[in-house]
Amino acid sequence: MSLKGKVALVTGSTSGIGLGIARALGEAGADLVLNGFGDPAQIEALRSGLAKELGIRVHYSGADMSKPAEIAGMVAQATEALGAVDILVNNAGIQFVANIEDFPDDKWDSIIAINLSAVFHATKAAIPGMKKKGWGRIINIASAHGLVASAQKVAYVAAKHAVVGMTKVAAIELANHGVTANAICPGWVLTPLVERQLEARAQQERISVDEAKRRFLSEKQPMTQFSSPADIGALAVFLSSDAAKTITGAPVSVDGGWVAG
Questions:
Q1: Sign of dihedral through CA atoms 193, 198, 203, 209?
Q2: Dihedrals φ, ψ of 60, to 5°?
Q3: Do the Cβ atoms of 143 and 99 come closer than 8 Å?
Q4: CA–CA separation, 252 vs 261, rounded Å?
Q5: Residue ranges covered by each domain of the chain
Q6: DSSP symbols for 136-149
Q7: What's the CATH superfamily of 7-189+227-260?
Q8: Quick one: CA dihedral 62, 36, 168, 103, positive or negative?
Q9: Cα separations (Å) of 19 from 12, 13, 167, 177, 207?
Q10: What mean pLDDT is predicted for residues 176-196?
Q11: Which residues are catalytic?
C-alpha cells in the first residue's frame, strides 16, 4: 500500500493519535504536513527526525484550528511547499466534561470550532486541488461518540455526530471525482494522555494499572483492550490506498465492540 508521491496533511499531529496517523502515512511513503501546538524546538526535532528516519519531506504548520483563515492558509502553504494535499486527515480535537446545564458557553464554542468547524474549513480548502488532480482522500477522525452518546460530553458528542454526517455529504458530492471521504470512529486509544489518567486512577483507587485499565475499558467496550495510535494509522493508510477506492461515506469503528451493543 505504497503512498509514495502523495502528500498527507494531518491536523493535530504533533502527539497522540494524530502523530500515530502521520507516522503510518509517512512509513507508507507519503510526504507529510504536521500541525499542532507545542514547544517549537520539540516540534522541529519531531519534524526533522521523521524526515530523516522515513526519507520523506516533512513540513510543519502552526495554524490555529479555531481560525478559518489560518486553516485555509495551511492548505495553501502545504500545496505551495509540497505540491499538493492529496490526503487530508482531520484529527485535531479538544474535550470538556460537564452536565448540559453546567456546560460553559465558551467551552461549547471552542469544541464546536475545533472538532467540527475546522473539519469543514480544511475540507473546503482541500477539495478544489483534489478534484483538479482527480484523486484525493479525506479521512475524518470522529469517535465512537460520533455514533453513540455518553453523559457530560454534549459538545464533543454533537460535534462528532456532525463530523460523521459531513463525511457522508462529502462522499456523495465527490463520488465521481476520484475523491473518497470516510470517518474513523475510535473507541479508547492508549495515548500518553490516557496512560497518565490511568496511572492517576490506579493510585486514587489503590489498584494496579492493569486493573485500572480493565475497569476503564469495561465501562464502554466489550473487548477490554485498547487500540493504539498505530492501529488508527494503519486504517488511515488502508483508506488512502487504491484498495479502498470504492469505500466512501463510511464510519469505520475501531472500538472493541463499543457500538455493537
A1: negative
A2: -125, 140
A3: no
A4: 16
A5: 7-189+227-260, 190-226
A6: EEEEEE--GGGTS-
A7: NAD(P)-binding Rossmann-like Domain (3.40.50.720)
A8: negative
A9: 8, 4, 22, 29, 30
A10: 96
A11: 156
Question: If 0-12 CB within 10 Å is exposed, 13-18 middle and 19+ buried, where does residue 203 land?
Answer: exposed
In this structure, which amino acid lies at residue 182?
A: N
Side chain identity at residue 119, one-letter code: V
- The pTM for the full model equals 0.96
* Secondary structure (3-state) at 60: strand
Asked if residues 230 and 189 have their Cβ atoms less than 8 Å apart, the reply is: no
In the DSSP assignment, the letter for residue 36 is -
pLDDT score recorded for residue 58 = 98
Q: List, for residues 98-120, the tens digit of each pLDDT value.
A: 999 999 999 999 999 999 999 99
Residue identified by cell 479502498 is: 244
Grid coordinates belonging to 25: 502515512
Alpha-carbon torsion angle 110, 94, 64, 163, nearest 10: -80
Rounded CA gap, 140 and 64, in Å? Answer: 18
For residue 115, the 8-state DSSP code is: I
